[in-house]
Amino acid sequence: MNVATRQSLGPSLPVGMKTFTRTTARTVAALLASALIAGTPSLRAGDPPIRVLLLSGQNNHDWKTTTPKLKAILTDGGQFAVDVTERPEQCTAETLAQYDLVVSDWNAWGDAKVKEWPPAMREAFLQFVRSGKGYVSIHAGSSSFYDWPEYHQIGGLFWNLDVTSHGPPHEFTVEFTRDHPITRGLEPFKTKDELWIKPGIHPDATVLATGDRQPLAVTTALGQGRGFALLLGHAAEHMDTPGFQTLLRRGARWAATGK
Ligand SMILES: [Zn+2]
């Protein structure tokens, strides 16, 4: 449901209901209920939302459009409560302690202004993951810190200097290579995206999905923590594919909870 529809259901509902058929009224009631759930994660019955810190503010991709899109996909449905930081290098152990999951739409590629995280943040990030929390990276979100082995162990996929390449965005089929809570029951799906050829892949990562035989989704581990890397998502428009959104939500849930 889009925002305009949600808003139009609000104030006009009591008056308009008088002229609705019973079926229409039931439909409106159901739509209103789902709108409340989608817009108010804390009202959802059952598990509390997974608390997500979304890293952004620097990326050689258009983070100003991809970050709001990622936040919307995760927030829709009430499974996740998402905060965004555009200065991850300023985070501390206390910041991370408020979250179950870190999602990266941030990188330090090329002539980026911020090339390193302070030692305290590096250590806080590793402790966060090792303690049993989750890390998810989207597309170029892990292409940073080439001198930091643990970051690549939990990141899993990255742009391998002098080896990785890509052509223009094109249509291809995403296929699944093994049974896993993230991929269980999913059918192969077509998407249009920028496909990386020969991405860097950590030797301990487990490939879950490919496109044109190139790995594009992996799981990782570090200590008690879990990671999920998804190379789809070059631009916001490529995140509209339902398959992308399912993989993002399932990968985020699994990284945070192991389920
Ligand atoms: Zn890209």
Topology at a glance:
Layout lengths: L2 H7 L3 H4 L5 H18 L10 E6 L7 H13 L4 E6 L7 H4 L4 E4 L14 H12 L3 E5 L10 H7 L1 E2 L6 E2 L3 E7 L12 E5 L2 E2 L2 E2 L4 E6 L2 E9 L2 E6 L11 H16 L2
The protein binds zinc ion.
What does this protein structure show overall?
The structure is a single chain. By secondary structure, the protein is an alpha/beta fold. It folds into two domains: 3-39; 49-257, Class I glutamine amidotransferase (GATase) domain (Rossmann fold), CATH 3.40.50.880. The protein has helices spanning 3-9, 13-16, 22-39, 63-75, 93-96, 119-130, 149-155, 242-257, and strands at residues 50-55, 80-85, 101-104, 134-138, 157-158, 165-166, 170-176, 189-193, 196-197, 200-201, 206-211, 214-222, 225-230. The strands form three sheets. Strands 2-1-3-4-13-12-11-7-8 form a nine-stranded mixed sheet. A two-stranded antiparallel ribbon has the order 5-10. A two-stranded antiparallel sheet has the order 6-9. The longest helix has 18 residues, at 22-39. The protein is globular and about 40 Å long. The two termini are 27 Å apart. 37% of the residues are buried.
